[in-house]
Amino acid sequence: MTLLRRRPLAALMLFVLAIVLPGSAGTAQPPRPSPAWVGTWATGPTTVPPGSVTTLERQTFRQVVHASIGGDTVRVRLTNEFGETPLRIGAAHVARRAGTTGTDINPRTDRPLTFGGSGTALVPPGAPLLSDPVPLALPAGGDLVISIYLPERTPVGTVHAFSFQENVIADGDVTAARSVTPVATATQWFLLSGVSVSTRAPRASAVAAFGDSITDGAVTENGANHRWPDLLAARLRATPGVRDRGVLNLGISGNRLLHDPHPTPGAEGFAAWFGVNGLARFDRDVLAQPGVGAAIVLLGINDIGQPGGPAPASEAVTAEEIIAGHRQLIARAHAAGIEIYAGTLLPFKGDTLGFYTEANEAKRAAVNHWLRTSGEYDGIVDFDAAVRDPADPLRLRPAFDSGDGLHPNDAGMAAMAAAVPLHWFR
């Protein structure tokens, strides 16, 4: 009985509020969506080859990242996931870049990063570090500058080896400075793996591009953001209905689907940068991304081409083994509730890396046939068809060849981005 008496009173109160609240006009207002965290930029971290470790002490590393989706609040993910000792962060700042080149910041947008309310942090070996949210209006397609000060002698054990973006090292804590005087430059990202934004766009989500050097951006122009995932992000921003899709580049140069780096003699100086195998890093690099709703996979050419070169011949794999690896990615993505797409493997006849043989081409053809015909992925983007030479389909089109017969140039990257169906993300 008590409940029955309360219902008319509650209805009366709602009626009165509808009359007296300005702008209500007696009409229910749609609820404003709660802000959601969505990845706007990411990279796959790796360890560092022996002899290539950069050591910083009382220095600031200032690095530039290119956002895909915009928002009004940002979070930065730092990482010591491959470090062997604790990482002490003395200070860290984020700001929008001033202009389109260099590492100068717009000082009005400079924000200190905190971690649990503190401006300093100690990160154990093997751990990431997520910053507190920072109010900062970031436009879609804008550039951020992230500055990290390391007060103690620190061998940097976690990097992304090929940023195709020039970053700088400066002496002292200059994390808040408008401009810095570099003592060194580096085309790597140090101790950094992601940036996410808070957005009220009701259907905002992220697309993870998961692959090897072709996804990573080799060998595109430094600082131009001409990697195919960047160019895909630009297409999405320009297209109604899919503008609120972030694109995250989780390509790692040299990465294989099925094997960790295991260099042959002479290849030790760079193989550690190739990252752990795709099956091992998929959960961290794709499924754990904020707001991820879909993935595009382009992996397998290094599994075919590396054995007998930078990897031992004993690690040769069959097309069936590569396909089994892809099926694992499909199963794990679907179990996590995200859509997963794949790209066909690009042609590589005449490459300068020694990947091409008739046997290796047969493996590529078998994997591509399965991709095109099996229907097991949620969709296929035919990168092979987009960049191959019509006069010799086993080779890259000359206008798209970077010069090594394996990696597309900037124009080839644009052709790849143009081949991705945007209706997947509506």
TrEMBL record:
<dbReference type="InterPro" id="IPR036514">
    <property type="entry name" value="SGNH_hydro_sf"/>
</dbReference>
<feature type="domain" description="SGNH hydrolase-type esterase">
    <location>
        <begin position="209"/>
        <end position="415"/>
    </location>
</feature>
<feature type="signal peptide">
    <location>
        <begin position="1"/>
        <end position="25"/>
    </location>
</feature>
<dbReference type="Pfam" id="PF13472">
    <property type="entry name" value="Lipase_GDSL_2"/>
</dbReference>
<dbReference type="InterPro" id="IPR053140">
    <property type="entry name" value="GDSL_Rv0518-like"/>
</dbReference>
<dbReference type="InterPro" id="IPR013830">
    <property type="entry name" value="SGNH_hydro"/>
</dbReference>
<keyword id="KW-0732">Signal</keyword>
<protein>
    <submittedName>
        <fullName>Lysophospholipase L1-like esterase</fullName>
    </submittedName>
</protein>
